[in-house]
């Protein structure tokens, strides 16, 4: 959804986004987006190794 707030530390020029919903984690987001493991942290600086600090309702670069 283009109206969802964007994670402020997402990579500049990102063209593909995933909005976090309850129960999401890095693996689930990366799997749904079809991107390799570690992509979410690489494109969204500030995410911890376990993705335990995802912001519900925010769009992250994938």
Topology (elements, then pairings):
Elements lengths: L16 E3 L6 H8 L5 H5 L15 E3 L1
Antiparallel strand pairs: 1-2
Describe this structure in words.
- The protein has 62 residues and is of the alpha+beta class.
- It has a single domain (17-61), classed as Membrane-bound Lytic Murein Transglycosylase D, Chain A (Roll), CATH 3.10.350.
- The chain has helices at 26-33, 39-43, and strands at 17-19, 59-61.
- The protein has a two-stranded antiparallel ribbon with strand order 1-2.
- The longest helix has 8 residues, at 26-33.
- The mean pLDDT is 94.
- Compute the CA-based radius of gyration: 10 Å
Low-confidence stretches: none
Category from helices, strands and their pairing: alpha+beta
In quaternary terms, these chains amount to single chain
Number of strands: 2
Keywords:
single chain; chitin binding; 10% strand; chitin-binding; two-stranded antiparallel ribbon; virulence; alpha+beta; 62 residues; globular; Membrane-bound Lytic Murein Transglycosylase D, Chain A
Question: In a few lines, what is going on in this structure?
Answer:
Keywords: Chitin-binding, Virulence. With 62 residues, this protein is α+β, with helices and mostly antiparallel strands.
């Amino acid at each position: 959804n283009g109206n969802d707030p964007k994670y402020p530390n997402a990579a500049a020029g990102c063209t593909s986004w995933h909005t976090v919903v309850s129960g999401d984690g890095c693996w689930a987001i990366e799997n749904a987006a079809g991107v390799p493991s570690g992509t979410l942290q690489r494109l969204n600086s500030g995410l911890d190794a376990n993705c335990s600090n995802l912001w519900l309702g925010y769009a992250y670069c994938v």
